[in-house]
């Protein structure tokens, strides 16, 4: 099928296109130079904004944790339901939507690619089964590898090559896309109820430190030439005063930056940017972090913006979730996974009139606005930790309009206003910059060559929004912008129109991307693994890998490693 | 002859995946590594009681029919029903369960699994307070205190202790197997002496030991893993435990609340709780607080007796309290091999783990209202599809009376009490023996089920049967819409 | 003195024999034998004058059923009887779900009486009587 999108205002930052009136042609699911109009379905996009399909770099949409959150919170679902239609399946929504609903809602906002950032390798089949039930989008998942016993043991020995081979084996075995590191060292310590509190604490039972894990895996990531960098959730996340740990973490990676390319992605940065000694004195550390980031180029980040709403926090950071449970006394799920990782869930309501929550809200926006280069920091809520992904349009409104920000800031706790410098920031993002932080920048950071842009050969994933950049004044009409980004005029995936006027026209299942990492030497790992397997896990070697059976439709990406 | 290794056992929630099968001429001839129930399953699947043809009720009797006919009849029943129940799901694969959700949504029925009469209350407890838990390997590597409360793994999960807990070899904790062997030998010796004493004319026969000794035995003070069993009766597992605590029936809640108070350093003004002396409880609490990694496994002894989900609520709350002092986890001992999977699949597709009502076009969940036993007791359902389960044998009589009054479709490899009452019976292939798939262990670890032998000719998998019923139902409903 | 009736608490649950029998097939003799029985404390059996492997009648508010009394080796648990899950147990279990979907299968007050002359019904007979099919 051929599709021609005519006369839209195109925003394609990767190709440097900024609000140019042009046609986009799609043939066999890919962007092409041109097609014959008479053979094609034509969409008249005049007066509309055309962007590549959205690419979310960090959103918990599938897997054991997410599902435990769904099970935990019937009260979250009951207020937000999706009826079955002739085209779509039924489901429930709000902070942890059911799988089908997740797909539809992303698609309605013009997103076409979602990265699921947390997958315990032992339970990877579960993640992939759920991903297979999420329609409308392409997706991939990051396995949690920072506290994997094999990683700790090889780093302890200083054998990076062997460590790299194991990671390569793991990527293929669990069909993963990037190395996810969560509170390095802290998760292993949590096995006996402890934690690490700085990047130089020793991990109990292993002679390594978080610093060694972060740097080691960063080097491994380079050796393997993985498309994305290491994806890092820092130590001391969610603890007042943690901006110092974050800065130290950023600094320890400086030496590893050879060229201008980033070597690490610090995720949901907001949660790692707190100053103060305790919650009473907690305030924003965004300025210090932004100053550092503005002077260095070895990092990318995402916001982890907080929304004032009732949501469900879930991370692999078991000790952090335990602290949050202590703080709130709310329901608490903990799920430690043998040999690999841990995890926790606590429902949480961010309140405008709570000083800490309001400061958290400010910090996310401060970071996005103080870090000058939009190619460094991207839009996320760390769904559902800061709030559900359906709140993205709200965040866009705050980013493009000081008026929108101030309207919300005014209604927060008065003390909170003084704890950040948000009110003094005048920067207002353009639509071009919004396109960077929601698609161009993310896909570049992820190394997705065919996503996030509209150049020839890219996937035919396009979002069209009902916004006329010529006539609209973004800062004043932010409500129009918010509405436009909530309900895409059209969402096109692989050349197929999936959504029109915010309604699903057809259901379609995207592909799961994963890395097939080729190492020089034929991999000896399986032999070694077989002998150790029963000592490490409670399942058999043969039953561990994620077979093709678990992927409804896949798109392996072959990577040539330098080992 | 071929040997198939790493087979996952489709019996209980332990999902042992180290079974070796010797297959000859398309039949399983030998089972290695499995427990008695596992052997019975792998050898018994081709038993003489298996039916190979679909059946349909005519003039009050079940007679053989064709697959097409059975599918058509089932689809008619479901398409014409206003409020059907689709029940079972715990002994089939996740793949079949996924089709099941679609079918339930299509016909606007109640989708429910066997958890409702098993660990349903556990889920309600979790929805109240959450659950600090872990995978079983974590217990194997780290736990130095294992408590089985209201469950008897020796009978229901025979390899649980050996593979995952006290008798397993872990990184930080070793197996206690040798110690127990010695203990058993000693116990056997003592029994012999007792027998001799009984025969001998002794004036003062040895008194019967008190049920729960007021002081914990010496071995609770040793290093290494310790095993405690709390139950209303001395079970097989209690025999191997270091410490057996006999609680009075229906008093688990009281006992647990007493422990919570003690964990929080409060004093108790009574001498005993639930038949156990307070001194003994204090010792128990010290053992719990003093461990490095403790875990409570609980079973139906908690979910089915007085208090039901409140028992679970308090057990989890106790675990939460203990986490302020040390590392503690808690886990339900799930029965059927894929009951966890059915909760998991239902949850990711609908948001709810069981008792999902689609009658309004979207998933709704209200245990006590949308759960199958209640729907049956209120006599609201007008048809039912039962898959991989036997509610006629497992539901209370009054609920079954309404179930069998309405059209009933059964999909099951075996003839069971429910199929004897059914209007349409589909024999299906044994999941995990004749057809592959996925199942979730009690700790939510997904494991692949293997196809080891071919199913008998003409016998389809649950998934395939459901797919055909779904397709046929859609056709009928489309016609109904067109006619209207 | 031998009593005519004994008040007890009824528990139901799994046994390894029931597990083995169920996997053999619900129509198998193993299954029948494993679930149409009732574990009793030897003291209680003495009180009733019931010998090992003879039939007893168990009655609750919800119904009554004849099962075979078997001595429980790991006594004592006086005042408690234990019937493995199955149609026999369910004939006398409580259907009260306390509005949470879960019937009561454990801790039900019951009465036991000797029934040497009454037969244990097989599954089909039992279902016929209970549900008329």
Fold and architecture overview:
The complex is a heterotrimer of chains A (563), B (484) and C (133). Chain A is α/β, with parallel strands linked by helices and 563 residues long. Chain A has a domain at 2-52 and 454-504: Urease, subunit C, domain 1 (Roll), CATH 2.30.40.10. Chain A is 32% helix and 21% strand. The relative contact order of chain A is 0.17. Chain B is of the alpha/beta class. In chain B, the strands form five sheets. A nine-stranded mixed sheet of chain B has the order 5-4-20-19-18-6-7-16-17. In chain B, strands 11-10-9-14-15 form a five-stranded parallel sheet. In chain B, a hairpin with a 5-residue loop joins strand 21 and strand 22. In chain B, helix 3 packs across helix 14 (339-350). Chain C has one domain (6-131): Barwin-like endoglucanases (Beta Barrel), CATH 2.40.40.20. In chain C, helix 1 runs antiparallel to helix 2 (29-35). Chains A and B meet through helix 1, strand 7, strand 8, helix 4 and strand 18 of A and helix 3, helix 4, strand 8, helix 5 and helix 14 of B.
Which structural class should the secondary elements of chain A be placed in?
A: alpha/beta
First and last CA, distance of chain A: 42 Å
What is the helix fraction of residues of chain A, given as a range? 25-40%
Rounded to the nearest angstrom, the radius of gyration of chain C is 14 Å
Mean pLDDT of chain A: 95
The CATH topology annotation of chain C reads as Barwin-like endoglucanases
Shape of chain A: globular
For the termini of chain C, the CA-CA separation is: 43 Å
CATH structural architecture of the domain at 2-52 and 454-504 in chain A: Roll
Strand content of chain C: 25-35%
- How would you describe the shape of chain C? globular
Tell me the number of helical segments of chain C per DSSP (H or I, 4 or more residues long).
5
CATH topology of the domain at 2-52 and 454-504 in chain A: Urease, subunit C, domain 1
Low-pLDDT residue spans of chain A: none
């Amino acid at each position: 099928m051929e599709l021609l999108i005519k006369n839209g205002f195109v925003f394609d930052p990767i190709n440097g296109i900024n609000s140019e009136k042009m046609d986009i042609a799609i043939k066999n699911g890919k962007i092409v130079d041109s097609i014959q109009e008479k053979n094609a379905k034509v969409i008249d996009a005049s007066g509309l904004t055309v962007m590549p399909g959205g690419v979310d770099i960090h959103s918990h949409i599938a897997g054991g944790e997410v599902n435990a959150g769904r099970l935990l919170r019937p009260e979250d679902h009951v207020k937000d339901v999706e009826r079955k239609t002739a085209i779509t399946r039924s489901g429930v929504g709000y902070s942890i939507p059911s799988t089908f609903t997740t797909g539809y809602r992303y698609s309605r906002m013009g997103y076409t690619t979602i990265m699921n950032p947390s997958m315990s390798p032992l339970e990877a089949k579960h993640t992939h089964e759920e991903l297979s039930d999420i329609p409308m989008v392409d997706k991939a998942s990051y396995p949690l590898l920072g506290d994997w016993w094999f990683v700790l043991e090889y780093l302890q020995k200083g054998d990076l090559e062997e460590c790299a081979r194991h990671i390569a084996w793991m990527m293929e075995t669990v069909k993963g896309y990037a190395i996810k590191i969560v509170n390095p060292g802290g998760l292993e310590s949590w096995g006996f109820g402890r934690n690490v509190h700085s990047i130089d604490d020793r991990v109990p039972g292993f002679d390594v430190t978080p610093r060694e894990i972060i740097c080691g895996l960063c080097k491994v990531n380079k050796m393997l030439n993985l498309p994305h960098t290491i994806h890092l959730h820092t130590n001391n996340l969610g603890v007042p005063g943690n901006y110092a740990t974050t800065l130290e973490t950023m600094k320890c990676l400086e030496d590893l930056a050879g060229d201008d390319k980033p070597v690490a992605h610090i995720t949901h940065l907001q949660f790692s940017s707190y100053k103060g000694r305790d919650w009473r004195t907690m305030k924003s550390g965004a300025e210090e972090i932004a100053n550092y980031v503005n002077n260095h180029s070895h990092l990318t980040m995402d916001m982890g913006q907080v929304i004032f709403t009732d949501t469900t926090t879930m991370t692999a950071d078991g000790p952090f979730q335990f602290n949050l449970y202590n703080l709130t006394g709310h329901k608490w799920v903990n799920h430690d996974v043998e040999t690999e990782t841990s995890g926790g869930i606590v429902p949480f309501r961010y309140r405008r009139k709570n000083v800490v929550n309001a400061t958290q809200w400010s910090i996310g926006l401060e970071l996005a606005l103080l870090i000058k280069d939009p190619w460094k920091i991207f839009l996320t809520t760390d769904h559902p930790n800061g709030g559900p992904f359906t709140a993205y349009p709200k965040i866009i409104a705050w980013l493009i309009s000081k008026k929108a920000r101030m309207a919300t800031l005014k209604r927060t706790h008065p003390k909170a206003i003084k704890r950040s410098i948000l009110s003094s920031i005048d920067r207002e993002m353009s639509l071009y910059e919004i396109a960077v932080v929601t698609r161009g920048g993310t896909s570049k950071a992820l190394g997705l060559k065919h996503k996030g842009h509209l150049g020839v050969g890219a996937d035919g994933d396009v979002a069209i929004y009902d916004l006329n950049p010529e006539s609209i004044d973004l800062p004043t009409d932010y409500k129009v912008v918010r509405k436009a980004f909530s309900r895409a005029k059209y969402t096109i995936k692989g050349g197929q129109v999936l959504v029109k006027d915010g309604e699903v026209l057809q259901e379609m299942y995207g592909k799961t991307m994963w890395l097939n990492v080729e190492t020089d030497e034929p991999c000896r790992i399986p032999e070694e693994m077989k002998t150790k397997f029963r000592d490490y896990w409670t399942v058999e070697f043969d039953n561990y890998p994620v077979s093709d059976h678990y992927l409804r439709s896949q798109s392996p990406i072959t990577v040539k490693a330098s080992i | 002859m071929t040997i198939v290794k790493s087979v996952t056992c489709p019996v209980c929630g332990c999902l042992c995946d180290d079974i070796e099968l010797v297959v000859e001429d398309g039949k399983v001839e030998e089972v290695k590594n499995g427990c008695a129930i596992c052997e019975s399953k792998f050898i018994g699947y081709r038993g003489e009681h298996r039916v190979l043809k679909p059946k349909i009720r005519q003039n009050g009797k079940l007679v053989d029919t064709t697959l097409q006919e059975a599918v058509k009849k089932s689809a008619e029943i479901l398409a014409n029903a206003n409020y059907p129940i689709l029940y079972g799901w715990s002994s089939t694969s996740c793949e079949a369960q996924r089709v099941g959700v679609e079918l339930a949504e299509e016909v606007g029925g109640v989708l429910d699994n066997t958890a409702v009469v098993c660990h349903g209350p556990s889920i309600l407890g979790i929805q109240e307070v959450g659950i600090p838990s872990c995978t079983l390997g974590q217990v194997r590597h780290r736990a130095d205190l294992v408590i089985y409360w209201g469950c008897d793994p020796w009978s229901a999960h025979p390899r649980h202790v050996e593979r995952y807990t006290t008798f397993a070899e872990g990184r930080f904790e070793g197996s206690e197997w040798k110690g127990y062997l010695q203990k058993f030998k000693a116990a056997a010796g003592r029994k012999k002496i007792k027998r001799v004493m009984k025969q001998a004319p002794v004036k003062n026969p040895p008194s019967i030991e008190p049920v729960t000794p007021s002081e914990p035995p010496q071995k609770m003070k040793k290093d290494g893993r310790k095993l405690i069993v709390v139950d209303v009766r001395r079970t097989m597992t209690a025999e191997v435990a270091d410490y057996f605590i006999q609680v009075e029936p229906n008093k688990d809640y009281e006992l647990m609340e007493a422990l919570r108070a003690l964990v929080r350093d409060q004093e108790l003004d009574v001498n005993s709780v639930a038949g156990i002396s307070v001194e003994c409880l204090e010792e128990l609490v010290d053992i719990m607080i003093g461990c490095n990694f403790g875990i409570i496994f609980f079973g139906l002894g908690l979910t089915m007796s007085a208090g039901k989900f409140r028992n679970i609520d308090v057990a989890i709350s106790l675990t939460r309290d203990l986490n302020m002092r040390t590392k503690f986890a808690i886990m339900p001992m799930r029965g059927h091999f894929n009951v966890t999977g059915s909760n998991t699949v239902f949850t990711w597709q609908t948001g709810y783990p069981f008792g999902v009502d689609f009658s309004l076009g979207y998933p709704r969940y209200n245990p006590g209202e949308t759960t199958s036993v209640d729907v049956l007791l209120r006599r609201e359902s007008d048809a039912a599809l039962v898959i991989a389960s036997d509610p006629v044998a497992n539901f209370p009589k009054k609920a079954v009376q309404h179930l069998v009054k309405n059209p009933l479709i059964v999909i099951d490899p075996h003839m069971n009490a429910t199929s004897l009452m059914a209007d349409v019976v589909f024999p299906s292939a044994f999941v995990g023996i004749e057809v592959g798939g996925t199942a979730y262990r009690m700790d939510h670890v997904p494991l692949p089920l293997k196809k080891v032998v071919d199913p008998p000719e003409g016998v389809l998998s649950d998934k395939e049967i459901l797919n055909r019923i779904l397709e046929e139902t859609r056709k009928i409903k489309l016609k109904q819409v067109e006619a209207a | 003195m031998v009593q005519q009736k004994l008040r007890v608490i009824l528990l139901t649950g799994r046994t390894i024999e029931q597990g083995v029998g169920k996997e053999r097939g619900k129509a198998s003799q193993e299954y029948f034998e494993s679930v149409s029985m009732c574990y009793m404390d030897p003291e209680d059996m003495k009180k009733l004058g019931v010998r090992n492997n003879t039939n007893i009648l168990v009655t609750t508010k919800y119904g009554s059923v004849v099962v075979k009394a078997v001595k429980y080796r790991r006594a004592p648990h006086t005042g408690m009887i234990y019937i493995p899950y199955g149609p026999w147990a369910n004939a006398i279990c409580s259907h009260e779900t306390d509005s949470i979907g879960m019937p009561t299968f454990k801790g039900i007050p019951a009465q036991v009486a000797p029934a040497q002359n009454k037969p244990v019904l097989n599954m089909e007979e039992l279902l016929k009587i209970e549900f008329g099919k």
